[in-house]
Design goal:
The protein is an alpha+beta fold. It has 4 helices and 11 strands. It has 2 domains: 57 residues, no CATH class; 105 residues, Immunoglobulin-like (Sandwich). A 4-stranded mixed β-sheet has the order 1-2-3-4.
């Protein structure tokens, strides 16, 4: 929560877009007790560290991270994989997908998921992409390379199979990332 700002205070030094603009206006900083306004947050001069900060417990770097609008941070996909990135014959691995924006896991905002396979064999890939495993993908999947199930395909000319994962967000944002096995 932002700190109340009193623009009539003799220690008030103005409103700035960011700490860098404040440093341009006050290259030598301020005096103990001086403060500035950045997006409704009071930033106090800390002479010991030679920087403006939201309080005396954190430095300006973390203040920038905490008070910067998260609209500048792009969502992206991250994977938790129980395997080592390779599937030997007879192995399986579980992959869980997470959508992350800044420091926040926003996976709960995903409205739908897609996964497609590219093993280099378009006919086999199309069949896999139409399978119940692909159609029912919900951000979690078990990849198998076993006698009863082969998610990697049988293309003898390909040693890597890629799976393209797309998460569709509530706000219309799509994020995509590739898993290679």
């Amino acid at each position: 929560m932002s700190t109340p700002i009193d623009p009539t205070s003799p220690h008030y030094k103005g409103r700035f877009n960011n700490i860098y603009d404040a440093n341009l206006a006050y290259p030598n900083g301020g005096a103990e007790g001086d403060f500035i306004d950045i997006d409704g947050w009071a930033h106090y001069w800390n002479a010991d560290r030679g920087t403006w900060g939201v309080n005396k417990e954190r430095d300006a770097y973390w203040d920038e991270l905490l008070t910067t609008h998260d609209s500048y941070i792009t969502p992206h996909l991250e994977f938790d994989n129980t395997g080592d990135g390779f599937l030997e014959y007879g192995e399986t691995c579980d992959v869980t997908c997470h959508v992350v924006k800044g420091f926040d896991d926003i996976t709960d905002s995903v409205t739908s998921w897609e996964i497609t396979r590219d093993s280099g064999d378009p006919v086999e890939d199309d069949a896999w992409n139409q399978s119940a495993k692909a159609k029912n993908f919900n951000g979690k999947i078990t990849f198998s390379f076993t006698p009863t199930q082969n998610d990697l395909g049988t293309n003898a000319n390909s040693y890597i199979t890629t799976f393209n994962v797309t998460a569709h967000g509530q706000d219309g944002t799509d994020v995509t990332k590739t898993i290679s096995l």
